[in-house]
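Backbones bend. Our protein:
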Amino acid sequence: MTLSPLIPSIKRCFNLDDFRRQAKHKLPSPLFHYIDGGADDEITLYNNTQAFDKYQIVPRCLQDVTRINMQTKVLGCELDWPVLMSPTGMSRFFHHQGERAVARAAAQSGTMYSLSTVATTTIEDVASATSGPKMFQLYVLRDHAINDELIERCRAANYDALCLTVDTVVQGNRERDLRTGMTVPPKPTLQSLASFALHPAWCYHYFTTPPLEMANLSHHIAEGSSQVSSLGKYINEQFDRALNWAYAEKVAARWQGPFAIKGILCVEDARRAADIGASAVIISNHGGRQLDGVPAPIDLVAEIADALGDRVEIILDGGVRRGTHVLKALAMGATACMMGRPYLYGLAAGGQAGVERVLALLKSEIERDMILSGQADSNKLGPGFIRT
């Protein structure tokens, strides 16, 4: 698979924060802050990345690092490196290439893409776009027949794994969106009209490409959308607040394949996930977008890994911005990491080429950091690799 040609703006991006600045430049304010923001006071959002700074790498000298191995196996899939693409909703909001572009970039980089229930591209269209490893992320809706339908569509489209998100039975309080006038689907409001007018390229694609919709649910949403003011409000009303462990076990049994539970933040829930047959637990606070004031995922990895041993794979989701962050998580016992915001910044900045460059930069950082710390195999990192 060939790389997409770089556009001038992303050639000037040399780390993930550079892509954040480019995304801010490219997007109308409500769209940028929808990616960038968190819940309430955004303490958790900030802490997810800052928490990595508490841990220092202990490099080893005089080690043969001629050959570096980053390959790993996650949820039954052989990957070239230990960073997966987190599920993020409505990617076409940020660039008209949307989920297809991200999935293709993930495959080109040798990693797994995760498609959200509230994606703007269908399960089938993403499967047609790439043969790379794919996981579908399921939000449990009150109409369980819809949940069953989504699972069967993933099976028919040959998705490799299923991920059940358990921390979103109601949307978090995202005050930035209220201040910027963000709506789902996006549309100019009194407070955002000027920002949309100043971003004609985004507006051009918005009006000349197919309408933005929650593609996997559109045939169901149409039945009830006349009673609500927006699709965002409608889908929030459909989240099943009765979601419990018994239903999670039913989902795992229905899928009968590699199965992850996303949103785990304590040992007790991690154990329960293993008990019901989960292949992996994803330590995640939804990028600080749900409950504010909860632990950073990196602070929980060692505790959960020590408690569960080899019962499940452990995936860290949240705050990853540097190659050293990934290595620290692996040393604590994580099987792999996930990231969401950074690739959305790349998508907004340059479509598929932007996502490809985000992944290439992080992948090369991990390799360079392994060489500099005297570690030839990312699968052999252990507690001695870090200190507090």
